[in-house]
Each structure stands twice: as C-alpha cells, then as structure tokens.
Amino acid sequence: MMWRLVSCTLCLLVSAQLSLWCVWASAVELDGEVKIEVVYKPEECTQKSKRGDLINVHYDGFLAKDGSQFYCSRSDKTGHPQWFVLGVGQVIKGLDLGMEDMCPGEKRKITVPPGLAFGEKGKDPVPPNATVVFEVEVYSVSRGPRSMEAFKMMDLDEDKSLTKEEVKQYLQLEYEKSGKPRNAAFYEKIMADIFRKSDQDSNGHISAKEYNIYGHDEL
C-alpha cells in the first residue's frame, strides 16, 4: 500500500512538472525570436535600413504550418511596393525587427513567431498562435521621416513643423542623390501616405510632437 502511495505521488509530481514544462515550452514558442535568412545581398550597399528609415518593399506572407500564402503585396491594391517607416509599428513587430540592416536590392526570408506576429487572436486569414514566414525584397532605403537629423534637414524655416512642400523637397533631394529621380506623382503618393499616418490633427503640417514618436528631446 505504501509503495502504491509513493508511486502515485511520484506520478503526480512528474505529471505536474511535465505540465509546467509544456506551458513554459509553449510560451517560449509563442514569444520566440525572429529568424532571418538572407536569400540575396548585393555586393554594394549604399545605405542599410535602420529604425526610422523610409523603406520601399515587396513582401509575401505564408503560414509556416502548411506554406499557404495569406498576403502578397504584388497583388494587393495596385500591386506597387509598400512604403512604410521602419520600427514604428506600421507593420507587425517581427517585420520591424527582421528588416533592420537591409540593403536596397536585398532579399530575406523572415520567420516570425506568433508573439511577434498576430498573437493569440490571429488576424483573418491568419489563425491564432500562428508562426508566419515573409519573403521580403527591399527596393529603396532613405532617411526619415522619423530620424531627428532628417527633421532638421526638412524644416527649412526652422518653425519645428513640416509642410508638404518641405517634405517633398527633401524626398526629391534624397532620390536625386541616389541617382534615381522620380516624377511628381511618385512624390505626391509618398507624401500623402506620410501625412495620412503622421498629421494627427489633419491641419496640413506635421508638428515636432507628431513627428517625434520616439520621445527624443533633440527638438
């Protein structure tokens, strides 16, 4: 009888320990880390992407579980590469992390755990607790509009707010320096997106407060 009691106690302890290990393992798997595989990298790299940079990118999203595709920027809307500011939450956290230090022309395969993707709830058509894989190709990297240096360069009249004309001039100079000047419609599209996301009070200006999302005090 005593042996049975001891055996049962040991079984319960082992079972409880295994349950804790399973919970811990699940938590680690859900949070996890972003895995980066460089598929292609050009020999010359004019500028590596960093937090606050404006980048132009195509990306395809797949479920790691079965490889089914849930997003393709080439077929979304007009099919143009996506513009966004890196590191400010305009894409999922895993992509913000996985696309740092990328060169124009570089391609990566980025595997993102649920905790850095769509989480426990998921987002249709991505199911809850799903690991996702993105195939990413970066077309261009330029400063700002979230670097403090860029703000000061754009703020020509030094009034600590940005007009559309100031932002347009800055973008034109950046693209001309890289040897890739574009037409007016190209810059208008970028500006419209920048002001839509940053001009919180819709007054046609981006104030230092609206711009300074990192909470720096240089301004």
UniProtKB/TrEMBL annotation:
GO MF: calcium ion binding; peptidyl-prolyl cis-trans isomerase activity
SUPFAM superfamilies, alphabetized: EF-hand, FKBP-like
EC number(s) stated in the UniProt entry for this protein: 5.2.1.8
Annotated EF-hand domain residues: 142-177, 186-219
Reaction equation(s) it catalyzes: [protein]-peptidylproline (omega=180) = [protein]-peptidylproline (omega=0)
GO cellular component: endoplasmic reticulum
Keywords, comma-separated and alphabetical: Calcium, Endoplasmic reticulum, Glycoprotein, Isomerase, Metal-binding, Repeat, Rotamase, Signal
Database matches in InterPro entries: EF-hand-dom_pair, EF_Hand_1_Ca_BS, EF_hand_dom, PPIase_dom_sf, PPIase_FKBP, PPIase_FKBP_dom
Domain PPIase FKBP-type: 52-142
Signal peptide: 1-16
Keyword Nucleotide-binding: no
Originating organism: Champsocephalus gunnari
The protein's name in its UniProt record: peptidylprolyl isomerase
Membrane-spanning parts: none
